[in-house]
Amino acid sequence: MSTLTRRTLLLAGVAGVTAFSAAASATRTDPFTLGVASGDPTPDGVVLWTRLARDPLAGDGLGGMPNRPSEVFWQLADDDRFTRIVQQGSTAARPEDGHSVHVELTGLRPGREYFYRFKALGHLSRTGRTRTAPEPGALHVPLTMAFASCAQFEHGYFTAYRRLAEDEPDLVLHLGDYTYEYESGIHVAPQGNVRHVEGPTTVTLADYRRRQAQYKADPDLQAAHAAAPWSVVWDDHEVDNNWAGLLPDKPQPDFPARRAAAIQAYYENMPIRRSPRLYRRIRWGELATFHLLDTRRYRTDQACGDGLQLCPERLEPSRTMLGAQQEEWLFNGFRDSTARWDVLGQQVFFSQYDYIPGDVDKFLLDAWDGYVAGRDRVVAGFADVRNPVVLTGDVHAAWGAEVKQRWDDPSSPTLATELVTTSITAGGDGSEEYAETSSWLRENPHVKYFNNRRGYALTRFTPDELRTDFRGLDFVTRPGSPVRTKASFAVEDRVPGLHRL
């Protein structure tokens, strides 16, 4: 058994004491300023990630690294002192990939915890913890999973990421807005901004690399990445607010080139496999299948010029959030699924939500309310799975909702459950939750919970139940807030809907 507690490992960034570190005594600048990460676990593998950057905010976006490859050594072990090495090797960190490395491991044992680290240029990285998914067919292996979104660097400190790390999940889903594109002072929180970002609004590859690096250098975010494997999807702010397909929210020159630069930088900075598409599945034995969606690259442009308004165009049958190919992929996955829980990891509010109490209906057209026919097709697909659950980010507050067969009839059957995580920081400290009998919730009776603090959601999957704890911070405009469980809900096997605990 390790002599170090897992929490000590995660928060202090233990380096290790074996021969692997014997040469790590050079006095040159540490290239591991952006930490380490792992992601997308399978039963026999996982992706290990790091990116070399001696000067993370260097103007050319190359992190102060030379314009040539650097050799990076890696190790994977059964224990945090690396006395039982499982695999090791080396790879090249190349300038054309922002000096990032993505080690796609195979041949590991299912359902096991591992520890990993890197060495390059005479320096040793911190240690990360990861794990593989259970073997196919495994059902009685519980899963503790955290999900998060919307980390606006200027709006607050990333304490929520550190508290998430302390909860020691088996898996983390990030549902978008991992970074924000604005230059400093453009996007202002209600209490004002408490930090600033370097550089202009991100447009070029160098811009996006620098912005990703500034985020990755944050110690709280590094702790969360080192705590568990992550599976990530982007939303809009990793590129530009409210983009859709090849269309920007506002006219701008050569948006396709800007989008390509952002996607390149996203790959360089995330523990994901190289793939032409973002949507994919993460299987946790027979307990859960996570269908991770891309709700930006293939969608129809927002209806009625976007925004919050009454809009008949949103009902047109041809409107799609996912595009035909991704829809077919999703529905085939539903039909083939044998999982106890089928989970959509996606970005924008799924349930209908009328923002204006009274006779006038107004809907957010960037969310699924602007793509009603596409949502109806997904809801119809839920009939093919045992327990459908939708996980959502984007809206900077925690919500719990029941997906109805008919949205305007509270007595109609509940077909699925939607759980929405609040933001890590976006929106600043927030406020105490509104009363659950507020006019907003009376207008939308299928919505069962709302909380306006910052934080994340912590879920535990078992064969019989999905439990969700909405975790909230008292403040983010200064560091060090405690985290509290604001509310807990359960979804029972074969009983869609929320039960407050």
UniProtKB/TrEMBL annotation:
**Gene3D superfamilies hit by this protein:** PhoD-like phosphatase, Purple acid phosphatase-like, N-terminal
> Which keywords are on file for this protein?
Signal
Q: Pfam families in the record, alphabetically?
A: PhoD, PhoD_N
Which part of the chain is the Phospholipase D N-terminal domain?
Answer: 34-132
- Which segment of the chain is annotated as a signal peptide? 1-26
Do the record's keywords include Signal? yes
The residues covered by the PhoD-like phosphatase metallophosphatase domain are: 145-470
Keyword Methyltransferase listed = no
- Name assigned to this protein: Alkaline phosphatase
Q: Which species expresses this protein natively?
A: Lentzea guizhouensis
